[in-house]
Target: Serine protease
Amino acid sequence: MKTSTLILILIANALVTVLIVLGFMVIPVTGFPSINLSNTGESDEEVISAIETVSPAVVSIIITKDLEKIYDRENNRFNEDPFGRFYFQQRSMSPTAFDPRERVSQGVPPRDGEVTSEPQTKTIEIGGGTGIIISSDGYILTNKHVIEDKTADYTVFLVDGTELSARVIAVSDDTDLALIKVEATDLVAADLGNSDELLVGQTVMAIGNSLNRYESTVTRGVISAIGREISAQSSNGDVVELDNVIQTDAAINPGNSGGPLLNLDGEVVGINTAIDSEGESIGFAIPINSAIEFIETEME
Model:
């Protein structure tokens, strides 16, 4: 090996050694580079905060009906599906899926020896949905297909368990939206966002009375698409054409109808309305801006 080559190798090794020594001298002073993981996406804290913000404004809607109107005692069968077909999804029922004797809500029976000529109240729960409080004096936004049965009664349950009777104020055939009212004051109203600002891939959450049994169920997903056009079948068999709806993969179940689709700021950006039962995690919501137009018209 030539002397010049050997000298260059020694110099290179010396430089590497110096750089390594200097590196270990600098690291204790400056510290290792920090990686900020909090900016890689939404945090759980953001999701939790959004849910806590809107939860008091989300209500469960229970639908009941006089048993005599839907049950044929002579032939021991129902004249209509007691479960309804809420959420634009036909629901099959096996002959043994429902026993009216077990789930009938009867009035208080007369005391021993008491004579009464008034018939006992016999009602049955036929379905349910979700609603969003939009004013402190009791206006609630939901879906038309949740409250379209004019012979049924509607009861609202607040998050604290308060039970209130509701009456229908207005419905929209074009958007499948409805406005109902309970007699109450000082209710917590939800903040309504701007659905025109939504982006595909944006994180959203859904809250609702899933399966009419699991109230205030929260699911999380993203905006899968915007501006969809869908055909949905209502509970009375009518086909409703809905334009410009939001598609999401946040799990939406029967009973979520009328519940909110939220952004990370806790604002309502959509009204959960339908699912495609042939797929998985394919749900649809009406943009809140369409709902705002309906609200402003009906509450003038």
User: Anything to note?
Assistant: Residues 3-30 form the longest helix (28 residues). The first strand starts at residue 58 and ends at 66.
